[in-house]
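Researcher: Here's the sequence for the chain we discussed earlier.
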Amino acid sequence: MSKKNVPNAVSHRCSVTSGSRCRSKARASGRNIKLEIEYDGTNYCGWQIQKRHQVTKSIQETIEKPLRKILQEKIRLIASGRTDAGVHAKGQVANFHTNSQIPLKKLQVALNSLLPPDIAIKNAREVNSNFHSRFNAKSKLYRYTILNNAQRSAFLRNTAYLYPYSLNLKLMRSESEMLLGEHNFKAFQASDKKERSAIRTIKNLKIRKGKGLIYIDIEADGFLYNMARNIIGTLIEIGRGRFRKGDLEKILQAKDRKLAGPTAPARGLCLLRVKY
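Model: Thanks. This is the structure I predict for it:
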């Protein structure tokens, strides 16, 4: 669909000639639309809109702009959580409220026609008016991909972290078990402007290897700023021998970010799914 053929939201609203009752009903009830979004975060400053002088655009504003054009309304997207610059998503979830009655399939087609090729709307559906993408989320599943190969890949350059050295996966797996359950993850929390509790619950953490790639999946009820990438960086340090058996438990209990490993590069991290 060309940009010239984008459906006009006005044509999908109640007709002006149908009277004020219809328009009032639309304003009173509104619609809560849930979007499932995938994106390559390489060229963005992250999900959240940044300060106006920021040169790189955010995912949020890149989607909101065409939404406003289609719906002729001021739209604010509420995401399940922010992803950092360079981080990707296959299953980000965001919702917004609108009075437009545009059919959702047409909205999805129109929106995808206006979005850049590195962002796509996978699904759009109407949900309960009380649904909130962030507050209703039960858990989030992230995957970190490591290209464990001596040579780089042209195709994986933006979606995997090249680590050409041997890693002790057996030790990484056994040590990672210490992270399961509810803990204070302050040792893996990057400095944040907002003071917040560091208590989180990791529900699953799996490490597997296949065809030169190592996948680390982490599912938790929530993540602190850079928490996933700091955990990955620490696990890599364990795998390469910098940290010994039992060190991860000490790092966790010390609650000191300086003791943990470095922050793994953003390009290897992807939000796979948000569970509700």
